UniProtKB/TrEMBL annotation, chain A:
It is a multi-pass membrane protein. Residues 52-251 form the ABC transmembrane type-1 domain. GO terms for cellular component: plasma membrane. Belongs to the binding-protein-dependent transport system permease family. The lineage of its organism: Bacteria, Pseudomonadati, Pseudomonadota, Alphaproteobacteria, Hyphomicrobiales. This is ABC transporter permease.
UniProtKB/TrEMBL annotation, chain B:
Part of the ABC transporter complex PotABCD involved in spermidine/putrescine import. Responsible for energy coupling to the transport system. Its EC number is 7.6.2.11. Belongs to the ABC transporter superfamily. Spermidine/putrescine importer (TC 3.A.1.11.1) family. Signal peptide: none annotated. It comes from Borborobacter arsenicus. This is Spermidine/putrescine import ATP-binding protein PotA. Its main location: membrane. The keyword Membrane applies.
Length: 263, 355
């Protein structure tokens, strides 16, 4: 028994080392820009770079827009499927899983072919059009995470009865979704939103092929031309991703309690 | 009956090839409390949902206050409804839940606040305004649901098995409370239940439903004492069924076992001499032994005796039939003994002929 426990601990330690050592190496390397001493020089250089600021700001804005558009598409869809079209659920789930099996590069080439300047909807003909295309591309990429998060949230409430209770009190569909359904799945939506943000902030393929000034391509550009700054940027990107994950944990502590006390 | 406030006319509802409600007709007077009573799957909840607008009838009309609402959506009908599962909005406080319908209707805040306070007073939970549903017990949640349904002063109140999820004690007190509030506000109410005691104790009239149609509509007294069909007689209350043979249909004489009994005039309807009839008798209409004032009696053998505390339930074998009756527990008297020969007596007018 004691031997088994020891083996478990050793395996756990090896696993941790496997994941943590490269990170420690990267952090350590990012601090060695100044010769002979550890310093945050690489971070200051990166943070002071106007290109970093503009690409990061661009990705943040695109990320937020992706979340908003995603919520507008996913919440009513998942709600309606649960309420009125439960038979379609397996098909909708299948569709939402497609982005996991179709590579982003295939999707983006499809976009370029469909929405080029000689197409019926020439979105790639202008910066705004391409930005819109990028946002919708990211909505598609984040679909598996956002849909699952919202669907799980809807599973925790009695969608049908709450809808009927609101309807009989005079509420229309807009009021029901905005005032009853969305607030009750808000934490699930936020979980999906943080995952979406984490995906968008470091995404490279779509942004690069659509030639948008996003953080992903900037990371690649710095990585190809500098020594210490790419490590600092990677650490920053990691921190952002982890912060998003931590936020999911934090907000889930404030989940609304739906169970009633017994008599 | 005064002019109907709610009129359900020839309503039929089918899901595919399954007919759930068939040719349902009912007129409900203003302020009346009507119960839909029946076993699971009899169509009572579907009928209620058709009145609410959640289900569209396959045929027929729903008229509320003289207006045909058949094609109106639930949010256009001005109906209040209380659900079995409470259905309080978990993200809103008690006060916000009660004010929800008022807010949707655009009621000014001052008026809405006053109405919420009034409703909290009616349900006797004025200090719970800022609590969330999860902080309330089941009974309290259902009272809030009732207040929410009544806050917008609906024309009609629908109660879909509101007491089923509660424990026995709370159920008992809440049913009195619901009835009191309903009487006080004078709101026309439809109450769906499968619990006959709830229906009998609360209703002005009861609609007993079976296989999608109204088997009998009547006051609790009529439903219990004059059931129109075998189903109603069996479903409402405990019933002893005795097999008899018609001797003289004009004189309303039947033979049960070896005895001839004369029923009240016309009780046999169109039956002919020699026809087999089923006769029903409530346990409380029978006494053990011969008693003055009871004009009919049957002899039999005591088959079973169950001690239930204040009463003793005795089962007597009468020919092929088994008859149950209750006698009060008398500590100074010897209880009946299984195997003893005995007589049971009753008034022939209490015998019901089942059709």
């Amino acid at each position: 028994m004691r031997t088994n426990r020891a083996v478990s601990w050793v395996l756990l330690a090896l696993g941790c080392l496997y994941f943590v050592l490269p990170l420690i190496g990267m952090v350590e390397f990012s601090l060695r820009m100044r010769r002979g001493v550890y310093s945050l020089d690489a971070y200051w250089v990166v943070l002071a770079d106007p290109k970093f600021q503009s690409t990061f700001a661009y990705s943040v804005v695109v990320g937020l827009l992706t979340i908003v558009v995603g919520i507008f598409i996913v919440v009513p869809t998942a709600y309606w499927v649960r309420l009125r079209l439960p038979g379609l659920r397996p098909y909708v789930e299948f569709v939402t899983l497609l982005p996991l099996v179709i590579p982003a590069i295939v999707v983006v080439f499809g976009y370029i072919r469909l929405y080029n300047t000689s197409s019926f909807l020439p979105l790639t003909g202008s910066a705004t059009g391409t930005n819109i295309l990028l946002v919708f591309g990211y909505v598609m990429l984040a679909l598996p995470y956002m849909y699952r998060a919202v669907d799980t949230g809807l599973r925790t409430i009695d969608v049908r009865t709450l809808t009927e209770a609101a309807q009989i009190l005079g509420a229309g569909w807009g009021t029901i979704i905005a005032r009853i359904i969305l607030p009750n799945v808000l934490l699930a939506v936020l979980s999906g939103a943080f995952l979406t943000f984490a995906i968008v902030i470091g995404e490279f393929t779509m942004a690069a092929l659509l030639n948008r000034p996003a953080f992903g391509p900037y990371l690649q550009f710095i990585g190809a031309n500098r020594a210490y700054e790419p490590a600092a940027l990677a650490v920053i990107a990691f921190v952002i991703t982890w912060a998003c994950m931590a936020m999911i944990q934090i907000v889930s502590r404030f989940a609304p309690k739906t169970s009633s006390r017994s008599n | 009956m005064t002019e109907a406030f709610l009129s359900i006319q020839h309503v039929r509802k089918a899901f595919g090839s399954t007919v759930v409600v068939q040719d349902f007709n009912l007129d409900v007077a203003p302020g009346e409390f009507i119960s839909f009573l029946g076993p699971s799957g009899c169509g009572k909840t579907t009928m209620l949902r058709i009145v609410a607008g959640f289900e569209e009838p396959s045929a027929g009309r729903i008229v509320i206050g003289g207006k045909d609402v058949t094609n109106l959506k639930p949010n256009q009908r001005n109906i209040g409804m209380v659900f079995q599962a409470y259905a309080l909005f978990p993200n809103l406080t008690v006060a916000q839940n009660i004010a929800f319908g008022l807010k949707v209707a655009g009621t000014p805040k001052a008026e809405s606040d006053a109405r919420v306070a009034e409703m909290l007073g009616i349900i006797k939970l004025p200090e719970f305004a800022d609590r969330y549903p999860y902080q309330l017990s089941g009974g309290q949640q259902q009272r809030v649901a009732l207040a929410r349904a009544l806050a917008a002063r609906p024309k009609l109140l629908l109660l879909d098995e509101p007491l089923s999820a509660l424990d026995a004690k709370v159920r008992l007190s809440l049913r009195d409370e619901i009835r009191q509030i309903q009487k006080k506000l004078g709101i026309t109410t439809i109450f769906v239940t499968h619990d006959q005691e709830e229906a009998l104790s609360m209703s002005d009239r009861i609609v007993v439903m079976h296989d999608g149609h109204a088997e009998q509509v009547g006051t609790p007294f009529e439903i219990y004492n004059r059931p129109a069909t075998r189903f109603v007689a069996n479903f409402v209350g405990t019933l002893n069924v005795l097999d008899g043979v018609v001797i003289d249909p004009i004189a309303a004489t039947v033979r049960i076992g070896e005895r001839e009994i004369t029923l009240r005039n016309g009780a046999l309807g169109a039956a002919s001499a020699g026809d087999a009839v089923s006769l029903a008798l409530r346990p409380e209409a029978i006494v053990l032994g011969r008693q003055p004032g009871r004009d009919a009696s049957l002899s039999g053998q005591i088959a079973d005796v169950s001690f239930l505390g204040s009463v003793i339930r005795v089962k007597v074998g009468v020919g092929q039939n088994a008859v149950s009756l209750d006698t009060f527990n008398n500590s100074s008297a010897q209880p009946p003994i299984v195997g003893d020969q005995t007589e049971i007596s009753f008034s022939a007018s209490d015998l019901l002929v089942l059709h």
